[in-house]
Amino acid sequence: MPSFRPLSRIASAFTTPLTPADYLRLVNPLSSARQLRAVVTAVQPETADSVTIRFRPGKGWNPHEAGQWARIGVEIDGVRQWRSYSLSTGAGQDPAITVTAMGTVSTALVRGTRVGDVLFLAPPEGDFVLPEHPRPLLMLTAGSGLTPVMSMIRTLVPRRADADVVLVHSSRTPEEALFAEELLELADQFPGFRLVQWFTGERGRRLDLTTTSDLDAACPDWRDRASYACGPVDFLDAAESLWNREEGELRVERFAPVVAPGSGGEGGRITFEKTDKEVEADGSTTLLDAGENAGVLMSSGCRMGICHACVTPLLAGQVRDTRTGEVHGEPGHLIQTCVSTAAGPVSLDV
Q1: Same domain, 21 and 115
Q2: What phi and psi values does residue 184 have, to the nearest 5 degrees?
Q3: What is the rounded end-to-end Cα distance, in angstroms, of the chain?
Q4: Residues 147 and 105 reside in one and the same domain
Q5: CA distances (Å), origin 299, targets 17, 35, 109, 159, 312
């Protein structure tokens, strides 16, 4: 009986030295067996420095829940850089990220992304999501912290007649406020959604969460609501402290890692063995930042100790975890460079 080779092997005979997949990607840029990709379908300006980038993922993407985030990869000067971004569209909709031009990768996305560009993806993650059962909600956001909450609002408010959501959003000016027109339209159209805009340029300060007075005025029944907060570190620290005192229910989404007091350590010389580079770093500079500042190609993702994309083998020395202050490390251990600083001389397998 004759034997039949798989079609892929037959096709390879005609495409060598390339593979059939290489030719398929010329026709369909989303086709890849190794890396999830997406094609940009729209780039919508939000403010002078922010855009919403909508994209169509290829096979392997899992539909996101409202409030989740995903790692996005983009090629910059021939190097693939990864960052984590909250998904701003509602659950069940094609995904999008809303990006503000801050930092190398975000600025490249805002200034350089065009329809038809290909992005690299990782599946959505995160537990900053809507409660399982309907209940009154309070959303506290500042700046780009509105992004994951906007996904929740777009999911809940237009779809449920019993939605009861209060959003208190802080931004510097009306011109710098994300999604300003859409939020005003939602508040006008749906009685179950109330918007409180807090403009620091007009009031001279951000919403004060060291006491309850601002909250009492903005949302008198805030203690009876399930609350969510997202924004700058000091804003979230104050919110957590207030809710702990009041014994309330609060979920927080941070865009930066929690740093334990006194966790910086002494620093030291960091040796990147594979690239033959050395750099002195103080106790407050993470191994990831030290490597990137020295021109070393470092893997990264969320940059806050969640996704583990930055995990790197430790060859020698010890490191300090910025979240706990703990010093640890043995040769061969895998460490997260985005939340580790040098605790003396360190050698990395990079």
Answers
A1: yes
A2: -65, -40
A3: 53
A4: no
A5: 29, 15, 18, 40, 8
